Amino acid sequence: MKILVVGSGGREHAIVWKIAQSKKAEKIYCAPGNAGISELAECVDIKAMDFKALADFAEEKKIDLTVVGPDDPLVAGIVDVFEERGLRVFGPRKNAAILEGSKAFSKDLMKKYNIPTAAYEVFDKAEDAIKYLETADYPIVLKADGLALGKGVLICNTKEEAIAGVKELMTDKAFGSAGDRIVVEEFLIGKEASVLSFVDGKTVKLMADARDWKRAKDNDEGLNTGGMGNVSPNPFYTKEIDEFCKEHVYQRTVDAMAAEGREFKGVIFFGLILTANGPKVLEFNARFGDPETQVVLPRMENDIVDVFEACIDGKLDEIDLKFKEDAAQVVILASDGYPEKYEKGKEIKGFENFKGKDGYYCFHAGTKFADGKVVTNGGRVLGITALGKTPEEARANAYKATEWIEFENKYMRHDIGL
Ligand code: AMP
Ligand code: GLY
User: Which residue from 146, 189, 296, 298 has the least number of CB within 10 angstroms?
Assistant: First the structure.
């Protein structure tokens, strides 16, 4: 098969790497891809949001399957465009990707179908939100309804902070139209868990669970990021929690979407918080997580192309998803300053250290070629993943491998997995 992957981050490198092991994959393309991906796939310079050019390319090259990585194209309806042109594609349609694309939609869905989540209110007008905040309990959480590069969530400790937050989101439009509507939500306390699943419209099958380290700095200080590291399995995601969520969250979400006429095919990423009153859903993502994918796929034993096809064909019940017992950890090497200001274009050295080393992976996130050298090209630059017999071994291995790579302004957290 000829397979096209859309996207350019560490998630897409991990997906391409996994597809490359498939017996079915004869040729892989990635649009736009990055320096690391280009070792496994032919990178084509088409942006993930240029649906027409992507579909033209898929037609011209007779692509058998397209896999979409990022949220933006999914929420904007790339799958519908491909399907209308008779092209086979893995991912939710626009009317299902709204599960991630609108927090108000997902909250209302959870309320209607009794899926455990934080108490909330939705506001379309800043003055109504401010009136509500006058008498609310604190801390409280404000969320822009739409996609905001993972930055549209504000945790406010006081009324003053919350009112300033409403102004930022709704009046000053810090995230554009994503803040036309906001969700104001009860603040919950607990450990978080990332649970990714494959969905074929009816059946949901869970991947290995993971835990994300979101803050930029050690000890969970600094700003929220897309994720600075991850481990799989998640030590806090117990058997009891898994059973509870199987009964109250996973299948119920898939059934709810079907009942709403929004059949979901693709990946649902359940962002959970494990509170003293049981697990609750913080958010849904309609795609693979990043960097979650960089620890989950190295543990997966199945041929991923079989799984993609089963999801598209509604035959996921025939797949037995299998994951290695080994633990995995990824540590993100970032450009110092991320998620705010940082410099790009720094030469990266040391990739040869990964050659021939089983269980060590260097996934590229923000890299490109310049004058024949690989240089930094983003905030999150590389994801260094390692496997181990135990979580401790995976952590030691991942941190050892972070030393194999050098670039100016290299930055990482030192407490991932602790
Ligand atoms: P979200 O994009 O909705 O997952 O929010 C991003 C991050 O903000 C989450 O991973 C949590 O760390 C935090 N967060 C979101 N909602 C809440 C909440 N209701 N209570 C506490 N923390 C939250
Ligand atoms: N690491 C969290 C996400 O992919 O949204």
Answer: 189
